[in-house]
Amino acid sequence: MQPLSNETLLAIAHDYGTPVYVYHAEKIEAQYQQLTHAFQETNTRFFYACKALTNISILKYIGNLGCNMDCSSINEVQLALYAGIPPNRILYTSNGIAFDEIEAAVQEGVHINIDSISNLEKFGKKYGNTYPVGIRLRPNILAGGNLKISTGHDKSKFGIPVDQIAEILNIIQQYNLIIKGLHIHTGSEIKDVSVFVQGITVLFDLIPKFNHLTYIDLGGGFKVPYKENEEGTNIELLAKEVKRAFSAHPNPNGKPLEVWFEPGKYLVSEAGYFITQVNVLKPTSATTFVSVNSGFNHLIRPMFYDAYHRIQNISNPNGKHIHYSVVGNICETDTFAWNRLLNETREGDFLVFYNAGAYGFEMSSNFNSRFKPAEVLVLNGETHLIRKRDSWQDLLKNQIEVL
What we know:
This protein is α/β, with parallel strands linked by helices.
């Protein structure tokens, strides 16, 4: 799958203005097909972790590919339903939420994973064995690109610690709960396939304790390549290891278990481009700052996670290479990249941030009272505006003047 060309991106910048997020539909499809092809010999279902990007057009497109939907809030559940995804293809995994969100999810008829002893007991008291659910466990495995995106270690807030299994079983017995799934998610940016195998091993020790299991959910967190010549998770190897592990450990209850995965970033990250325009060049004794018409209000990952995004000057692709520091226009420390080698850059040039499809627009804000950017989808070679840029009226929306 070829990336979008500089010519296409420049045309979008001119047609829709900047800053603007651009998504390549066929790249999303290619990523999904890679997953389904790799796992074609296993009993596997994929649920798009839509917290990565919830634009309704993206949800509809991914749903039409046949992918299911993984949601982290009741509002994401409602968005998935609005996008036409049927309830039996929607998974809601709670995380320290009020019980009324779980009640709302039950009303919608979606799959539910419960992540606390407290809510599991409340669920048992209200629903007993009338609504099968899954349990999110914390496997006490440290994995992921850095601690901020590691969710399975022994200090993580996510899931019920596996060492509390006796309490879980007591609640199940007391309320005659039907537990249909066990779920773990160890983090994001996981390249080492053995981490998933380690998680499977933890679950195999627990599976015999549950009599009604139909699925094992291994979460997501597949690594995608952000830097030049970087490699992501070997999906083909992961599929082979999953097949081998489950062949060696069949479900003691007889029926083969489904394996669920929740890819989010993997599906949309590489499909996304963020186009900005250079406002000011500021040479100093330490560096030359390239100030663009954006900031961490639009793309917070570099500031929040120390994340790397490849940046290219698409206005001068043949210019000589010079080191610059790319910064935003927010009145805080707002640096996208230090000492980055770019083609010679001038005021008015367009810079593209690659791998911007996941947690880019989704984590954007109106900090400094600046507008959120537009979003554009490229589908079958045609561009479609799928979110308008904010306007002045959007800054006042929902405010109530009392003076």
